[in-house]
Prior knowledge:
This protein is of the alpha+beta class. The chain has two domains: about 10-95 and about 295-315, Phosphorylase Kinase, domain 1; about 100-290, Transferase(Phosphotransferase) domain 1 (Transferase(Phosphotransferase), domain 1). It is about 35% helix and about 15% strand. The chain is built from eleven helices and 13 strands. The strands form four sheets. The protein has a seven-stranded mixed sheet. It has a two-stranded antiparallel sheet with strand order 7-8. Helix 4 runs antiparallel to helix 10 (about 260-270) and helix 7 (about 195-210) packs antiparallel against helix 9 (about 240-250). It is globular.
Amino acid sequence: xxxxxxxDPHQIGAYRLLARLGAGGMGHVYLARxxxxxxxxxxxxxxxxxxxxxxxxxxxxxxxxxRRVGGYWTAPVLDADTEAAVPWVATGxxxxxxxxxxxxxxxxxxxxxxxxxxxxxxxxxxKDIHAAGIVHRDLKPSNVLVTIDGPRVIDxxxxxxxxxxxxxxxxxxxxxxxxxxxxAPEQVRGDRITPACDVFCLGSVLAYAATGALPFGTANxxxxxxxxxxxxxxxxxxxxxxxxxxxxxxCLRKDPAARPSxxxxxxxxxxxxxxxxxxxxxxxxxxxLVAQLGRHAVRLLETEDPQGAGPAEGAGPSGPPAGRQGxxxxxxxxxxxxx
Length: 339
């Protein structure tokens, strides 16, 4: 989370911006607050993408589809203006670090029980996403947020909008669609994408959570070498606890038809009866992470109200607006806080 810069807008639609959350291939993401006081994440599309009508049309379709995603395990789409000069989408803000932050920086590999409950929560999230007719296509640790209650999935469906501006697997700006270390073989080969793609990505995420390492290595030796390993070689599951190694290995089958269904994944986690209504029924995180989440919540409160007395309801600081007024923070339900 960073302070707003001189080039950042202060208002997007009905939302007053508070801080920068990040940036990615799609655009910038901001922490914001609605006139009603709801904290949200607002994603502002890059101007060069907004200028492409093909992208805009797919973005409209994907936002509309994402609004239909229900359930408890995702960050809901609350508002959007796909017709603005610079389109944007607002989602519920999930007050927790990403799995990438947790494993890569704060804690390291997670214990088996935590990974089992992570798997159950992610399988529930993917079931809800697939029920809305969406394939996530970019499930990765930075798109999984960690909360006291359980994991939350963000950014579902958005990767598909970027595919409208691709040429041979690359965007017209030269960026890969998807995240190489967490892509499925069919994405690498440019084959038809089905929900089984997300099951493969789930396997990669679980291997990372359990070991701190990517099952097909990194792109240090080159992106194409990594993509070859994903398409042709077996995953390295050294360090994955024996109790979940077979499940992870089956998720990582090269043939989409050979991967387990999400219902079967839930059964094999052995943890489905420990999660309900978006919550782990018992504490699921190591105590050190629970303490970190508490500190994260305090920082959020300080960002929202740094002086101890925020502006009057509905008021916002002066600054250049981005886009036109959206439909307002009418809270209908999908992608989220990180790009």
